[in-house]
Structure formats: C-alpha cells, structure tokens
Amino acid sequence: MGISRHATAHWDGDFKSGRGTLGTPQSGLLSGTRYGFNSRFGQEKGTNPEELIAAAHAGCFAMALSANLTEAGFPPETIDARAEVDLSMEGGPTLSQIRLKVEAKVPGIDETRFRAVADDTKRNCPVSKALSAVPISMEATLAG
C-alpha cells in the first residue's frame, strides 16, 4: 500500500495577465497561495512551480539523508539542505539544472563516508528519482 498526496491549482485568465492559486487540502499548508506570470518570471510576491519543486527536493533530500546516515550508524544532529532549480528559456521553458547544497553536523563520521552516503541519497531520494531528467549536482559539507 502506498501513500497518496495531492495539491490543487486554479487559473483565471490568459498566460501573462492571468493568475492562479495553489492549495494543499490535505495539510492545509497552502490555501489560495498566489502564483502567476510575474511571480514566476518576475519579482511579484507569490510562489511558482520551480520554488515548490525546490522545496520538495530539499525536504525530501534532508529526510532521506537523515535516514541513510542513521542506518549507517551515524545519526545526524542537524542537516540544512537547499535546492536551487533553474528554469531555462532557451528553446522553450525547461528545468535545466538543480543544485543541491547540504551542510550536516554528523558526530563520528569522516568526510569520505559522509560524501558516499550523501551521493547515494542524491541518487535515490524519491524526489531526485522523479527529477532524474534534470541534471542534479551537489555540494555536501560537514559542519563543525
């Protein structure tokens, strides 16, 4: 048995002057959250698909890295993950690159072992797998 999650989107109007709202009815975290052309391609307040993909990837990666480090015998104290998602306009809009940046405080682990666990996590966290058509790079550092 799997787990199913969903989100909703509503859009009014044309591409450039229209606007939409996003929702996550199961958690209620997003409710009527604005998005549109100017929040995606400009600086207007609101979210955009790339930001949401980045949040999902950073969150999934941090959780998966914690699980993998713990399983390897090195439970982490802290993990700070950042995902940067690039949208290229060359040849039409496409996600062109994702950069993961992670810093973790992990007692007792050496740099080589940490890097191996982080690399495995980058390849195998569920969101990384879903985004495998996009090149994903990673900077992983140990804190302290």
Automatic annotation (TrEMBL):
GO terms for biological process: response to oxidative stress. InterPro entries: KH_dom-like_a/b, OsmC/Ohr_fam, OsmC/Ohrsf, OsmC_Ohr_Peroxiredoxin, Peroxiredoxin_OsmC. GO terms for molecular function: peroxidase activity. NCBIfam families: osmo_induc_OsmC. This is OsmC family peroxiredoxin. It comes from Pseudoxanthomonas broegbernensis.
